[in-house]
Amino acid sequence: MSRPGPKQHPMSHATRYRKYHPKLYRTRMPIFWWVRRWTHVRFITRELTSVFVAFYAIELLFLLWTLTLGQEAYDDFLAWLQTPLALALNTIAFLMILYHSITWFNLAPKALVVRVGEVRIPPVAIAGLNYAGWVVLSAALAWFILSA
Amino acid sequence: MTQQTIALEVFRYRPEQEHEPTFQTYEVPLRKDWVVLDALNYIKDEIDGTLTFRWSCRMGVCGSCGMMINGTPVLTCAAFLETYQPGPVRIEPLANFPVVRDLVILMSDFMEKLGRVKPWIMTDKEKPVAEGEYLQTPTQLADFKQYSMCINCMLCYSACPVYGLEPDFIGPAAIALAQRYNLDSRDEGNAERMEVLSQDDGIWQCTLVGECSAVCPKAVDPAGAIQRYKVASTNDWWRSKLMPWGK
Protein backbone atom coordinates (compact mmCIF):
# COMPACT_ATOMS: atom_id res chain seq x y z
CA MET A 1 0.00 0.00 0.00
CA SER A 2 1.45 3.38 -0.92
CA ARG A 3 1.87 6.00 1.77
CA PRO A 4 -0.15 9.20 1.45
CA GLY A 5 2.13 11.85 -0.07
CA PRO A 6 1.86 15.63 0.01
CA LYS A 7 -1.00 17.22 -1.86
CA GLN A 8 -0.12 17.66 -5.53
CA HIS A 9 -0.64 20.81 -7.58
CA PRO A 10 -0.26 19.53 -11.16
CA MET A 11 -0.77 22.91 -12.89
CA SER A 12 1.79 24.85 -10.80
CA HIS A 13 5.45 25.10 -11.84
CA ALA A 14 6.50 26.90 -8.66
CA THR A 15 8.64 25.07 -6.12
CA ARG A 16 6.34 23.28 -3.74
CA TYR A 17 6.84 22.68 -0.06
CA ARG A 18 7.42 19.06 0.75
CA LYS A 19 7.81 17.66 4.20
CA TYR A 20 11.49 17.06 5.09
CA HIS A 21 12.56 18.97 1.98
CA PRO A 22 12.43 22.55 3.16
CA LYS A 23 11.95 25.28 0.60
CA LEU A 24 14.66 27.66 1.75
CA TYR A 25 14.43 31.41 1.39
CA ARG A 26 17.70 32.96 0.24
CA THR A 27 18.60 36.58 -0.31
CA ARG A 28 21.41 38.06 -2.37
CA MET A 29 23.45 41.01 -1.23
CA PRO A 30 22.78 44.10 -3.35
CA ILE A 31 25.71 45.89 -5.04
CA PHE A 32 25.31 48.86 -2.72
CA TRP A 33 25.17 46.74 0.43
CA TRP A 34 27.77 49.02 2.05
CA VAL A 35 25.73 52.25 1.99
CA ARG A 36 23.35 51.05 4.69
CA ARG A 37 25.78 51.15 7.59
CA TRP A 38 28.22 53.85 8.58
CA THR A 39 30.89 51.30 9.57
CA HIS A 40 30.67 49.75 6.08
CA VAL A 41 31.01 53.17 4.42
CA ARG A 42 34.15 53.78 6.49
CA PHE A 43 35.47 50.35 5.45
CA ILE A 44 34.87 50.95 1.74
CA THR A 45 36.48 54.41 2.02
CA ARG A 46 39.52 52.80 3.64
CA GLU A 47 39.76 50.28 0.79
CA LEU A 48 39.37 53.05 -1.83
CA THR A 49 42.24 55.04 -0.33
CA SER A 50 44.57 52.44 -1.89
CA VAL A 51 43.83 54.06 -5.25
CA PHE A 52 45.30 57.33 -3.96
CA VAL A 53 48.34 55.53 -2.56
CA ALA A 54 48.89 54.19 -6.08
CA PHE A 55 48.33 57.70 -7.50
CA TYR A 56 51.07 59.14 -5.28
CA ALA A 57 53.47 56.33 -6.17
CA ILE A 58 52.87 56.84 -9.92
CA GLU A 59 53.27 60.60 -9.57
CA LEU A 60 56.62 60.12 -7.83
CA LEU A 61 57.79 57.63 -10.46
CA PHE A 62 56.72 60.06 -13.18
CA LEU A 63 58.74 62.82 -11.49
CA LEU A 64 61.82 60.57 -11.49
CA TRP A 65 61.21 59.67 -15.14
CA THR A 66 61.07 63.36 -16.17
CA LEU A 67 64.49 63.74 -14.51
CA THR A 68 65.92 61.27 -17.01
CA LEU A 69 64.39 63.30 -19.87
CA GLY A 70 66.30 66.45 -18.97
CA GLN A 71 65.89 69.75 -17.15
CA GLU A 72 63.09 71.05 -19.40
CA ALA A 73 60.82 68.05 -18.91
CA TYR A 74 61.42 68.17 -15.17
CA ASP A 75 60.58 71.89 -15.01
CA ASP A 76 57.43 71.33 -17.10
CA PHE A 77 56.24 68.68 -14.68
CA LEU A 78 56.98 70.91 -11.68
CA ALA A 79 54.97 73.66 -13.40
CA TRP A 80 52.06 71.23 -13.93
CA LEU A 81 52.19 70.37 -10.22
CA GLN A 82 51.48 74.07 -9.49
CA THR A 83 48.27 74.11 -11.55
CA PRO A 84 44.91 74.23 -9.70
CA LEU A 85 44.00 70.76 -11.02
CA ALA A 86 47.23 69.18 -9.75
CA LEU A 87 46.94 71.01 -6.42
CA ALA A 88 43.34 69.84 -5.98
CA LEU A 89 44.24 66.24 -6.89
CA ASN A 90 47.19 66.21 -4.53
CA THR A 91 45.18 67.72 -1.68
CA ILE A 92 42.53 65.00 -2.06
CA ALA A 93 45.24 62.34 -2.32
CA PHE A 94 46.97 63.71 0.79
CA LEU A 95 43.73 63.58 2.84
CA MET A 96 42.99 60.06 1.61
CA ILE A 97 46.49 58.88 2.48
CA LEU A 98 46.15 60.41 5.95
CA TYR A 99 42.92 58.40 6.40
CA HIS A 100 44.66 55.30 5.01
CA SER A 101 47.59 55.62 7.42
CA ILE A 102 45.52 56.39 10.51
CA THR A 103 43.00 53.57 9.95
CA TRP A 104 45.71 50.98 9.27
CA PHE A 105 47.90 52.08 12.18
CA ASN A 106 44.86 51.74 14.44
CA LEU A 107 44.30 48.22 13.11
CA ALA A 108 47.92 47.13 13.47
CA PRO A 109 47.46 45.79 17.04
CA LYS A 110 44.88 43.31 15.69
CA ALA A 111 47.58 41.55 13.69
CA LEU A 112 50.57 42.09 15.97
CA VAL A 113 50.55 40.39 19.32
CA VAL A 114 54.02 40.84 20.80
CA ARG A 115 55.20 39.43 24.09
CA VAL A 116 58.25 40.46 26.04
CA GLY A 117 58.81 37.53 28.39
CA GLU A 118 55.49 36.95 30.14
CA VAL A 119 54.05 40.38 29.41
CA ARG A 120 52.00 41.19 26.32
CA ILE A 121 52.73 44.62 24.90
CA PRO A 122 49.43 46.55 25.11
CA PRO A 123 47.64 47.27 21.79
CA VAL A 124 47.92 51.05 22.38
CA ALA A 125 51.71 50.73 22.52
CA ILE A 126 51.77 48.81 19.19
CA ALA A 127 49.71 51.52 17.50
CA GLY A 128 51.81 54.18 19.26
CA LEU A 129 55.05 52.70 17.90
CA ASN A 130 53.62 52.83 14.37
CA TYR A 131 52.67 56.49 14.83
CA ALA A 132 56.09 57.25 16.31
CA GLY A 133 57.80 55.61 13.30
CA TRP A 134 55.59 57.66 10.99
CA VAL A 135 56.46 60.95 12.73
CA VAL A 136 60.20 60.21 12.84
CA LEU A 137 60.35 59.22 9.15
CA SER A 138 58.24 62.21 8.08
CA ALA A 139 60.46 64.57 10.13
CA ALA A 140 63.62 63.03 8.64
CA LEU A 141 62.25 63.43 5.10
CA ALA A 142 61.13 67.01 5.78
CA TRP A 143 64.58 67.86 7.15
CA PHE A 144 66.26 66.26 4.11
CA ILE A 145 64.07 68.11 1.61
CA LEU A 146 64.04 71.50 3.35
CA SER A 147 67.77 71.57 4.05
CA ALA A 148 68.71 70.58 0.49
CA MET B 1 -3.11 52.15 34.70
CA THR B 2 -2.69 50.60 31.26
CA GLN B 3 0.54 48.82 30.59
CA GLN B 4 2.94 50.35 28.11
CA THR B 5 3.50 48.28 24.97
CA ILE B 6 5.98 48.13 22.12
CA ALA B 7 5.51 46.93 18.55
CA LEU B 8 7.58 44.06 17.17
CA GLU B 9 7.76 43.71 13.39
CA VAL B 10 8.61 40.06 12.98
CA PHE B 11 9.87 38.39 9.80
CA ARG B 12 7.51 35.59 8.81
CA TYR B 13 8.24 32.94 6.23
CA ARG B 14 5.91 29.99 5.96
CA PRO B 15 7.23 27.96 3.02
CA GLU B 16 4.09 25.80 2.78
CA GLN B 17 1.97 28.95 2.30
CA GLU B 18 4.08 31.65 0.65
CA HIS B 19 7.01 32.20 -1.70
CA GLU B 20 8.17 35.49 -0.21
CA PRO B 21 8.54 36.46 3.44
CA THR B 22 6.31 39.06 5.05
CA PHE B 23 6.43 41.11 8.24
CA GLN B 24 3.85 40.68 10.97
CA THR B 25 3.43 43.25 13.71
CA TYR B 26 2.71 42.22 17.30
CA GLU B 27 2.10 44.53 20.27
CA VAL B 28 3.79 43.18 23.37
CA PRO B 29 4.03 44.54 26.94
CA LEU B 30 7.08 46.72 27.45
CA ARG B 31 8.44 45.29 30.67
CA LYS B 32 11.62 46.60 32.23
CA ASP B 33 13.02 43.12 32.87
CA TRP B 34 12.18 41.68 29.45
CA VAL B 35 14.64 40.94 26.70
CA VAL B 36 13.54 40.52 23.06
CA LEU B 37 13.51 36.75 23.53
CA ASP B 38 10.96 37.13 26.36
CA ALA B 39 8.79 39.18 24.01
CA LEU B 40 9.05 36.47 21.31
CA ASN B 41 8.09 33.82 23.85
CA TYR B 42 5.14 36.01 24.90
CA ILE B 43 3.99 36.12 21.26
CA LYS B 44 4.41 32.35 20.96
CA ASP B 45 2.52 31.64 24.20
CA GLU B 46 -0.18 34.33 24.15
CA ILE B 47 -0.71 35.69 20.64
CA ASP B 48 0.47 33.44 17.82
CA GLY B 49 1.66 29.89 18.44
CA THR B 50 2.79 29.48 14.83
CA LEU B 51 5.80 31.80 15.19
CA THR B 52 8.98 29.72 14.95
CA PHE B 53 12.39 30.57 16.42
CA ARG B 54 15.32 28.90 18.18
CA TRP B 55 16.29 29.44 21.78
CA SER B 56 17.53 27.43 24.69
CA CYS B 57 19.50 28.74 27.67
CA ARG B 58 18.31 32.39 27.69
CA MET B 59 21.55 33.42 29.39
CA GLY B 60 24.06 34.01 26.58
CA VAL B 61 25.70 30.61 26.71
CA CYS B 62 24.03 28.33 24.16
CA GLY B 63 24.26 30.67 21.16
CA SER B 64 20.88 29.60 19.74
CA CYS B 65 18.84 32.80 19.82
CA GLY B 66 20.86 35.02 17.50
CA MET B 67 18.69 37.20 15.23
CA MET B 68 18.84 40.52 13.43
CA ILE B 69 17.34 43.27 15.56
CA ASN B 70 16.91 46.50 13.58
CA GLY B 71 19.50 45.17 11.12
CA THR B 72 22.19 44.21 13.66
CA PRO B 73 22.95 40.62 14.64
CA VAL B 74 22.50 40.14 18.40
CA LEU B 75 21.61 37.45 20.92
CA THR B 76 17.94 38.15 21.65
CA CYS B 77 18.42 36.92 25.22
CA ALA B 78 20.86 39.77 25.81
CA ALA B 79 18.88 42.56 24.13
CA PHE B 80 16.63 44.47 26.53
CA LEU B 81 13.36 45.62 25.00
CA GLU B 82 13.64 48.98 26.75
CA THR B 83 16.70 49.94 24.73
CA TYR B 84 14.61 49.85 21.54
CA GLN B 85 12.01 52.38 22.71
CA PRO B 86 9.80 53.75 21.26
CA GLY B 87 9.90 51.01 18.61
CA PRO B 88 8.85 49.41 16.40
CA VAL B 89 11.53 46.73 16.73
CA ARG B 90 12.28 44.85 13.52
CA ILE B 91 13.23 41.22 14.06
CA GLU B 92 14.66 39.12 11.23
CA PRO B 93 16.55 35.84 10.96
CA LEU B 94 20.35 36.01 10.90
CA ALA B 95 21.50 37.55 7.63
CA ASN B 96 23.63 35.63 5.10
CA PHE B 97 22.00 32.27 5.91
CA PRO B 98 19.14 30.49 4.11
CA VAL B 99 15.87 30.74 6.05
CA VAL B 100 14.04 27.53 6.86
CA ARG B 101 11.03 29.12 8.51
CA ASP B 102 10.26 32.44 10.22
CA LEU B 103 13.35 33.22 12.34
CA VAL B 104 15.03 29.83 11.91
CA ILE B 105 18.07 29.66 9.64
CA LEU B 106 19.89 26.68 8.16
CA MET B 107 23.25 26.34 9.89
CA SER B 108 24.63 23.32 7.98
CA ASP B 109 27.18 25.44 6.11
CA PHE B 110 28.73 26.69 9.34
CA MET B 111 28.76 23.21 10.89
CA GLU B 112 30.58 21.80 7.86
CA LYS B 113 33.19 24.59 7.93
CA LEU B 114 33.70 24.23 11.65
CA GLY B 115 34.59 20.56 11.19
CA ARG B 116 36.97 21.39 8.34
CA VAL B 117 39.32 23.42 10.59
CA LYS B 118 39.64 20.47 13.03
CA PRO B 119 38.74 22.30 16.23
CA TRP B 120 40.22 19.80 18.66
CA ILE B 121 43.65 19.13 20.15
CA MET B 122 45.82 17.16 17.75
CA THR B 123 49.06 15.57 18.85
CA ASP B 124 51.63 13.70 16.78
CA LYS B 125 51.95 11.08 19.48
CA GLU B 126 49.65 10.76 22.45
CA LYS B 127 51.32 10.72 25.85
CA PRO B 128 50.62 7.60 27.93
CA VAL B 129 48.26 8.27 30.84
CA ALA B 130 50.95 7.07 33.25
CA GLU B 131 53.08 10.10 32.32
CA GLY B 132 50.48 12.42 33.83
CA GLU B 133 48.60 15.50 32.66
CA TYR B 134 49.53 17.98 29.99
CA LEU B 135 50.48 20.92 32.15
CA GLN B 136 49.95 24.50 31.11
CA THR B 137 51.09 27.79 32.64
CA PRO B 138 48.66 30.72 33.10
CA THR B 139 50.51 32.57 30.32
CA GLN B 140 50.06 29.65 27.93
CA LEU B 141 46.36 29.56 28.84
CA ALA B 142 46.04 33.32 28.29
CA ASP B 143 47.35 32.83 24.73
CA PHE B 144 44.17 31.11 23.54
CA LYS B 145 41.55 31.58 26.29
CA GLN B 146 39.85 34.48 24.52
CA TYR B 147 39.20 32.34 21.42
CA SER B 148 37.83 29.48 23.49
CA MET B 149 34.95 31.70 24.61
CA CYS B 150 33.20 31.29 21.23
CA ILE B 151 29.67 29.89 21.60
CA ASN B 152 29.08 29.23 17.87
CA CYS B 153 26.21 31.70 17.75
CA MET B 154 27.08 32.69 14.14
CA LEU B 155 26.47 36.42 14.73
CA CYS B 156 29.91 37.03 13.18
CA TYR B 157 28.91 35.24 9.94
CA SER B 158 25.79 37.33 9.84
CA ALA B 159 27.78 40.57 10.24
CA CYS B 160 30.46 39.59 7.72
CA PRO B 161 29.86 41.10 4.25
CA VAL B 162 32.62 38.89 2.82
CA TYR B 163 30.66 35.79 3.85
CA GLY B 164 27.50 37.36 2.39
CA LEU B 165 29.21 37.97 -0.94
CA GLU B 166 31.44 34.87 -1.01
CA PRO B 167 29.64 32.05 0.77
CA ASP B 168 32.70 29.79 0.31
CA PHE B 169 34.64 31.86 2.85
CA ILE B 170 35.37 29.65 5.87
CA GLY B 171 34.39 32.58 8.04
CA PRO B 172 35.22 34.30 11.32
CA ALA B 173 34.20 31.84 14.05
CA ALA B 174 35.72 28.77 12.40
CA ILE B 175 39.04 30.60 11.94
CA ALA B 176 38.98 31.94 15.51
CA LEU B 177 38.39 28.39 16.75
CA ALA B 178 41.23 27.07 14.60
CA GLN B 179 43.40 29.72 16.23
CA ARG B 180 42.15 28.63 19.67
CA TYR B 181 43.77 25.22 19.08
CA ASN B 182 46.84 26.50 17.19
CA LEU B 183 47.81 28.68 20.13
CA ASP B 184 47.27 25.90 22.65
CA SER B 185 50.64 24.65 23.94
CA ARG B 186 49.33 21.04 23.92
CA ASP B 187 48.37 21.09 20.24
CA GLU B 188 50.48 20.04 17.24
CA GLY B 189 47.93 20.47 14.46
CA ASN B 190 49.01 23.90 13.25
CA ALA B 191 50.44 22.73 9.91
CA GLU B 192 47.37 20.63 9.14
CA ARG B 193 45.01 23.56 9.82
CA MET B 194 47.22 25.92 7.85
CA GLU B 195 46.70 23.63 4.82
CA VAL B 196 42.97 24.31 5.04
CA LEU B 197 43.07 27.97 6.01
CA SER B 198 45.71 29.19 3.56
CA GLN B 199 43.48 28.12 0.62
CA ASP B 200 41.46 30.62 -1.44
CA ASP B 201 38.41 30.30 0.80
CA GLY B 202 40.46 30.74 3.98
CA ILE B 203 42.10 33.65 5.76
CA TRP B 204 43.00 35.63 2.62
CA GLN B 205 39.33 36.20 1.77
CA CYS B 206 39.04 38.42 4.85
CA THR B 207 39.33 42.13 4.03
CA LEU B 208 39.21 43.18 7.69
CA VAL B 209 35.86 44.87 7.83
CA GLY B 210 35.97 44.19 11.57
CA GLU B 211 32.20 43.83 12.07
CA CYS B 212 32.59 40.23 13.26
CA SER B 213 34.47 41.43 16.33
CA ALA B 214 32.06 44.33 16.86
CA VAL B 215 29.01 42.03 17.15
CA CYS B 216 30.67 39.14 19.04
CA PRO B 217 28.81 38.74 22.37
CA LYS B 218 31.82 37.01 23.95
CA ALA B 219 34.60 39.45 22.90
CA VAL B 220 36.35 36.67 20.98
CA ASP B 221 37.69 39.11 18.36
CA PRO B 222 37.62 36.82 15.32
CA ALA B 223 38.96 39.68 13.14
CA GLY B 224 42.08 39.77 15.31
CA ALA B 225 42.42 35.98 15.08
CA ILE B 226 42.30 36.11 11.28
CA GLN B 227 44.90 38.90 11.05
CA ARG B 228 47.23 37.01 13.39
CA TYR B 229 46.75 33.97 11.18
CA LYS B 230 47.71 36.02 8.12
CA VAL B 231 50.94 37.10 9.83
CA ALA B 232 51.70 33.47 10.78
CA SER B 233 50.95 32.29 7.24
CA THR B 234 53.22 34.97 5.74
CA ASN B 235 56.03 34.04 8.15
CA ASP B 236 55.60 30.39 7.16
CA TRP B 237 55.85 31.29 3.48
CA TRP B 238 59.02 33.35 3.95
CA ARG B 239 60.56 30.65 6.10
CA SER B 240 59.83 28.02 3.43
CA LYS B 241 61.46 30.25 0.78
CA LEU B 242 64.49 31.35 2.81
CA MET B 243 65.08 28.10 4.63
CA PRO B 244 63.67 25.35 2.38
CA TRP B 245 65.69 22.73 4.27
CA GLY B 246 64.01 23.52 7.63
CA LYS B 247 60.55 22.30 8.54
Please give a structural write-up.
- The complex is a heterodimer of chains A (148) and B (247).
- Chain A has a domain at 113-148.
- In chain A, 64% of the residues lie in helices and 3% in strands.
- Chain A is built from four helices and two strands.
- The relative contact order of chain A is 0.06.
- Chain B has 247 residues and is of the alpha+beta class.
- Helices cover 35% and strands 13% of the residues of chain B.
- Chain B contains nine helices and seven strands.
- Chain B has a five-stranded mixed β-sheet. A two-stranded antiparallel ribbon of chain B has the order 6-7.
Work out the strand percent of chain B.
5-15%
CATH topology of the largest domain in chain B: Fumarate Reductase Iron-sulfur Protein, Chain B, domain 2
Order of helices and strands of chain B: EEHEEEEEHHHHHHHH
What's the alpha carbon Rg of chain A, rounded to whole Å? 29 Å
Estimated radius of gyration of chain B? 21 Å
The count of β-strands of chain B is 7
Q: How are the strands of the biggest sheet of chain B laid out side by side?
A: 2-1-5-3-4
Strand content of chain A: under 5%
Task: Note poorly predicted spans of chain A.
Answer: 1-6, 8-12
CATH class of the largest domain in chain B: Mainly Alpha
Q: Would you kindly provide a brief summary of this structure?
A:
The complex is a heterodimer of chains A (148) and B (247). Helix content of chain A is 64%, strand content 3%.
SSE order and pairing:
The complex is a heterodimer of chains A (148) and B (247).
Chain A: H1 38-69, H2 71-81, H3 84-111, E1 115-116, E2 119-120, H4 123-146
Antiparallel strand pairs in A: 1-2
Helix pairs in contact in A: 1-2, 1-3, 3-4
Chain B: E1 5-12, E2 22-29, H1 36-47, E3 66-69, E4 72-75, E5 89-92, E6 99-101, E7 104-105, H2 108-116, H3 138-148, H4 155-159, H5 161-165, H6 172-182, H7 190-197, H8 211-215, H9 222-242
Parallel strand pairs in B: 1-5
Antiparallel strand pairs in B: 1-2, 3-4, 3-5, 6-7
Helix pairs in contact in B: 2-6, 3-6, 6-9
